[in-house]
Design brief:
The protein has 19 helices and four strands. By secondary structure, it is mostly helical. It has a domain of 77 residues: Alpha Horseshoe (Serine Threonine Protein Phosphatase 5, Tetratricopeptide repeat), CATH 1.25.40. The protein has a two-stranded antiparallel ribbon. The chain has a two-stranded antiparallel sheet with strand order 3-4. Strand 3 and strand 4 form a beta hairpin. Helix 9 packs antiparallel against helix 10, helix 10 packs parallel to helix 12 and helix 15 runs antiparallel to helix 16.
Amino acid sequence: MSKRRIIAILIAFVITIAVTAMWSAATVEREGDPDVNVIEDAGGSAGNLSNGKGGGNKIVKVLAAPFKAIGGLFRHNNEGKLQRMTEKDAEKFASVGVSKIETGNANSLRAGITGSASEHLAAGKQFLQDGKYNEAIAELSLAASLDPKLSEAHNLLGIAFTQKGFSERAKDSFERAIKNEPEDADTLNNLGFSLYQSGNYRAAIDRLKRAAKLAPTDERILNNLGLAYCRVGKFDEAFKSFSRAAGPLTGNLNTAKMLERFAREDDAIRYYEAARQIDPANTLALRRLADLYQRVGKPAEAQAARAALASPGSAANVASVEK
């Protein structure tokens, strides 16, 4: 094959990648746990403590800098040439400071570390807030190795692992934090949500119920507990938790939306109607009722919901509901 043809093929390939990336960048992609998105759409909070600032679920990301993303698949060798990232390189993300420190080598490891546990904790917390999760893992692991009873280091390490997608390592870190501080509601919430995300719903409910007893007004904990109840089919219990978090109107709406996710239209209608009893002009409830009644073969009820939606009182609620 001629050199000119090879160059032409490479140019065509690069253009194709660029066009694809530009299309992706224009497309809004929803991230995070889909159930948590339901809660956050209603203005509530759920999930774990995320990056330490309180946001539990990343909502929107767009793909940008496509050539930088492609370049991230490669690394440079000592001669400055590009090499494809190997599996060994990828494993470094999971191996920083997470292996158990045995008694025999703990002293030798600590001998080469400068700075106190609290200093490494502060550095790790800052990296976590900045979204630099690899650096956070390294610093928090040092803090935890220097002071194994430093519960906050284990808890934040679990959050960092969660952000990296290492769910088992996150769960282990949260459990170490709980072992040191069994009555810490935030850590119990993080462990419960980690178990929830891994599909261990009954264990998640156990931890989240304990967290709710310690912090009975914490919205994030109560919403997480409601989500876990939904996953085991206990929607009445879920409604109670959602209502404790944000009041009966939002409790009904969140329960109804979760029931829709499970394709339980009749039950969803029941909770939307309960929300409508509290707020007859609630736009969200009326919109969903119009759609659901039509779907289940009740056109008269659907039309009545649409008529109520078109009334001036309902229109006045659009802005507040859609925030």
